[in-house]
Amino acid sequence: MADTLKNVIAQSLECPVCLNTFTDPKILSCSHTYCKACLDNLLGCNGNDQMLRCPVCRAETQVPNQEVSKLPANLALKSLIEDMKNQYQFCSNCKSEDRPEAVVYCQDCGRYFCITCHKTHSQWPVFISHEVLAMSEIVSGKVSVRRYRKCRKHPKEDEECFCSDCRRFACFRCVVMEHTNEGHRVIEAAVYESSHVKSIEDLKSKADKKRSCFQKYVDFIDEQKDRVSNVQKQCTDDINKAYEDSVRQLTKEKEILIGEVNGMTEGVEKELDEMKKSAQEHITYLTTIADVVTNKTKIPLDMDALAAHDTLCQDLQEALKQEDPDYKQSIQSSKKGKSVSFKRNVGMDELGLGKIVNAVAKNIALPTKDSMNDMVGTPDGRMAVGCGTGGVEIFCADGQHQQTVLKDAKIVGLGFLSDDRYVVLNRSNNITLYTPEYTKLNVMFETLSHDEGELSSLAVDDDDQIYVISYSVAEKIQVFSPAGGKAIREIPCDGYIPVQFTNYNDYLITESFDTIRLIDKQGVVKYQLTKSGVYLTAAVSQGNTILIATVKDDESLVSIDEYTNELKHVQNLVTDYKVETNERGLWYTLQQYRSGEIAFCTPDRLYIFY
């Protein structure tokens, strides 16, 4: 009877969470007791929350300043544990009243033995394979005793059954007396234990997979941070190199520029750090609670322990329902950092390092959908968009639509002479001149008809010569004087069909979908740049370099880069900026405002990059 009482007392000294003897027991407001370490783990799963939910009854307890040590200790339980540790365990086999002290415990027999009984026990062949534990190791806590379950109502009976409805173990007699009502599902205790262990293993496996999923997400975020950091480093290196080539008086400007880069990238890194922190907290939560509930060497015995483990298993099930990481969110954040670059001053007289460029654009819808045919800078520094449906739309550098002129002109090509007169090419390949006040001039040009030249494009050089490309059929460029009449000369386009072109010093920049060519005024190709599978459009920058926009039409992404007059890459200005799709496709134009903003136009919209 004494051994049974001891077992009952020992079982009552077990924490319902870790299933080990209480260590530094703390009482919650609901009167349930747990180890301090177990409560620390449970509180840690809740992040910054100061409320701790009891795993047994689910009541909440306020934890001051998130310090479990400040909760009241269960002094009576603590004292009882110390008393139990200090008591000798006597031999279970000896029958005399003055029983000797036990030196070992047999896990398989469930009995304590003194030295004499241990020798006898070890000599029997049937007992040789039994697991025997030294009392010194049990007392020191190095090993745990695997006790048999004995019924509290019938101490001589083992609890060989488990009632799934009552969530408790019972002996056969208790089953007959208390668990035969309708609805009670009674199974063998061993079957329940096997099922319980399997369900815990399944939870552990799922927790490991979920944890691995979030760890991959954390690793991905680290990669994104590295890329943003590399952009920041590249920008800083470019700034330092430009600074070394300049004068020492630019120290202050250098620090300002680096500060702008840091300001643009640190916010992105902070966003990525927050995402990483959230994912790591979920990993910690899954690890902690999974480790608590997947202690396969311990099976909950009483109702409190079962309730605690049921609650924790439910918590783990809820945690497993959380959606997998959203990679799009971190990619979108990192794009803001990766789009930062440094634009060095090239070919400018003013003393300065350059400026930080970030792919931030103003998106303006054109007044008429699918209407843009050409775009060119105005003499006063604004941007003019020529529309095939009629009219020229004028936009200032901040994106404001200021006016519509030449509403009746169906424009295919557009340009300006040095005296601010408008040069308009219409769908019939006719050139018309207009005064700055939009009055049509009576000047005739003998261009190819539409049947002879099909669709055309137009450009004006610094000497007011007017260039008309008649492609698809004629494959040549006609050059006209602003006085009108016949073409003063022609430039052959041998082996290629130009679609658009731009005047550049003593050369022309021609565009043929995926190829940019720099040709002289006799048509000889000097330099060429080809990018297969994309659309290229070019413009002359304010620094007299060449800007080229690369359009991935199937993805609606545009990148803008700066090149030398030999079409050698200088730097990237805009990377994979998302533009809205349009019905026409494969028709885009590029220009730069006099104030430095870059204008990129689709048939439907104008994008101004600052």
UniProtKB/TrEMBL annotation:
GO CC annotation: nucleoplasm
GO function term, MF aspect, one: zinc ion binding
Annotated ranges, domain B box-type: 86-135, 146-189
Source domain of life: Eukaryota
Domain RING-type positions: 15-58
InterPro entries: TRIM45/56/19-like, WD40/YVTN_repeat-like_dom_sf, Znf-RING_euk, Znf_B-box, Znf_RING, Znf_RING/FYVE/PHD, Znf_RING_CS
SUPFAM superfamilies for this protein: B-box zinc-binding domain, DPP6 N-terminal domain-like, RING/U-box
Family annotation (PROSITE patterns): ZF_BBOX, ZF_RING_1, ZF_RING_2
Alphabetic keyword roster: Metal-binding, Zinc, Zinc-finger
Protein name: Uncharacterized protein
Species of the source: Strongylocentrotus purpuratus
